[in-house]
Design goal:
The protein has 173 residues and is an all-alpha fold. Helix content is 66%, strand content 0%. The protein is built from seven helices and no strands. Pfam families: Sigma70_r2, Sigma70_r4_2.
């Protein structure tokens, strides 16, 4: 039991930050992202014996996280939660401080991408997954992942070079 606990603790320390960032991008809410990560780790603990390749642990956890996020929509239906592409990033009372900066501009540009481009890019940039891991996760070829990530970056560059952003330089991952 002690070795299982040590293995799990190491897994949590190594992946919790990346999983949280990915969960936050999926749902757009801090508390919900924390809940998704916690549920992911609970399910991972129950199935830790099924993990044969520790090198694939991050992809395995990302798969669990994506499924947990999808379960939210199954349980609560479309009125319970809003998918990220429908999030209104400006509150009626005015923008919050985190919505005023360059991060908010980049976040809006990424949220504006079609899901087929946004998801591989987020898995790569926030999740730190390789093209092969993303391909396995999304059930597409590694070449398709590379193409979609390239096109996502091109679309972001175009969106970030739009009106009102002249003179700004944004580094894309």
């Amino acid at each position: 039991m002690a070795s299982k606990q040590a293995q799990f603790d190491a897994l949590v320390r190594a992946t919790s930050g990346d999983l949280y960032r990915f969960a936050y991008w999926l749902c757009g809410q801090e508390a919900l992202a924390e809940d998704l990560v916690q549920e992911t780790f609970m399910r991972a603990w129950r199935s830790l014996d099924d993990l044969r390749d520790t090198q694939a642990a991050k992809a395995w956890l990302t798969t669990i996280l994506r499924r947990e996020h999808a379960r939210l929509y199954e349980r609560k239906g479309p009125t319970g939660l809003e998918p990220i592409e429908d999030l209104d990033l400006i509150d009626e009372d005015g923008p919050s401080p985190d919505q005023l900066g360059e991060d908010a501009i980049i976040r809006r540009a990424i949220a504006g991408l079609e899901p087929k481009y946004r998801e591989p890019l987020l898995l790569q940039v926030l999740g730190g997954l390789s093209c092969e891991e993303i391909a396995h996760e999304l059930r597409i070829s590694a070449q398709a992942v590379m193409t979609q990530c390239f096109r996502a970056r091109q679309k972001l560059k175009s969106a970030l070079a739009g009106p009102g952003l002249e003179g700004k330089v944004y580094e894309l991952p």
